[in-house]
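Subject: for your reference before the review

Hello V.,

The reviewers asked for a structural picture of the protein, and I figured it would be easier to keep everything in one thread rather than splitting it across files. Below is the amino acid sequence we used in the manuscript, unchanged from the supplementary table.
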Amino acid sequence: QLQLVESGGGLVQPGGSLTLSCAASGGLLGDDAIAWFRQAPGKEREAVGCINRFDVLTYYLDSISGRFAISRDRSKNTVDLQMNSLKPEDTAVYYCAEDVSCSEYVQGYLTWGRGTQVTVSS
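And here is what came back from the structure prediction:
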């Protein structure tokens, strides 16, 4: 059974960078779509972006345009979320999720990691 684990979160100053990684056990990430979501305190979980099985990227938030990038490393069985020029409003728990195709909806994903906290603050 596929299990996902996020890592790389932490505290970073505004303008800083972080790279989150989604690692899998029990399956290959290269076979499916992997999405990144985030959930800020008191807000609903929202889709950040997704990479499908053909490595086609889709980003769902205008606010992250030009700052965030998703990539897949099949040799490591990971999908990364590179985040640059971070802002306080990027503070959230970030989750990766897996399913057969990309979707911007939480209901579109079968398997989820437990999340990693990203805090952007001076």
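For the response letter, the relevant points are probably these. The CA atoms of residues 51 and 57 lie 5 Å apart. The chain has no helices and eleven strands.

Happy to draft the paragraph if you're swamped.

O.
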